[in-house]
């Protein structure tokens, strides 16, 4: 596959920059804001998809660190924001090593500036669909030791691969590289088979030509033979929440219809 261009095209929206805008970031352009405003204004409440996904990622990295992960690869990492994977990992396990992977050149530029003095974290510009090239990158070889457990993160990225791009094969490639005890975290758009799902999916497809909401069985299949850990695959807003009802042990509130459109799960290789 040809090298990805390093120039930043401000005339076309970027998935990473739209996500940054929805999270309240500043690293985006008017064209990204226009797409984000379609979610904010035309699909009120849909911004919760991005927000609850981010919070679930923070909890996932916390728990992966607690389970012994000291090295991570974050695919489709997006633009740096508060509580990035390396910040959460280092907070719970100082010395953790992190490789960020994203195709967007603006992610590369901003992340390199952020990580200029951090020798245990790096970012590479690469296509998720070319895993061998990612594995062969010198920066991956420098920081990731595949003879030891690795935490793999696919946060809100696999749904940007259409079916013919075989997202399950992408996951399987990496799980094949892992030793037992490694952990894989996936969050993914979940089809609610409702008007909200159809509207959100149509917005992404019209804008980027990609974006695939999958049902529960399709998302489960992405994990392959991995052992899915408690509480299974569930709404990001309800996945290992920090706040539970003292009497029932359940989440303090039921996720909104929009929050039900993104789920997450953590799995272990045995």
From TrEMBL:
This is SAM-dependent methyltransferase. One of its GO terms (molecular function) is methyltransferase activity. The keyword Zinc does not apply. The lineage of its organism: Bacteria, Bacillati, Actinomycetota, Actinomycetes, Mycobacteriales. The keyword Methyltransferase applies. It comes from Nocardia arthritidis. CDD domains: AdoMet_MTases. Gene3D superfamilies: Vaccinia Virus protein VP39. Keywords: Methyltransferase, Transferase.
